[in-house]
Design brief:
Layout lengths: L11 H8 L7 H15 L7 H15 L27
């Protein structure tokens, strides 16, 4: 799977300004600021998709993770095929 995101090449200082935090803030502060901004800028809520992507990139720069680290990781195990409650084979 190819990643369609284009890296904006933000520095830590630029990323901190995007999220409204300091460059040396801890992970909890960065994630909280990202969630606040994501709620305001999410395209499904009428926000600008470019600003939303910028917020994602800023979070990635400040946390030191790739923007696509979470891709492919299931949110829940509900997709796992479970054995039916009725036993058709007996």
């Amino acid at each position: 799977m190819t990643d369609r995101r284009i890296s904006l090449g933000l520095t830590r200082l630029q990323a901190a300004k995007v999220l409204g935090v300091r460059p040396d803030d801890d992970e909890v502060t960065v994630v909280s600021a990202f969630r606040r901004r994501a709620l305001a800028e999410h395209p499904d809520r009428g926000g600008d998709p470019a600003e939303f992507e910028r917020s994602i990139e800023a979070r990635s720069v400040l946390l030191g993770t790739a923007a696509h680290d979470e891709v492919g990781v299931p949110r829940s195990r509900s997709f796992v095929r479970r054995r039916p409650w009725w036993r058709p084979w007996s």
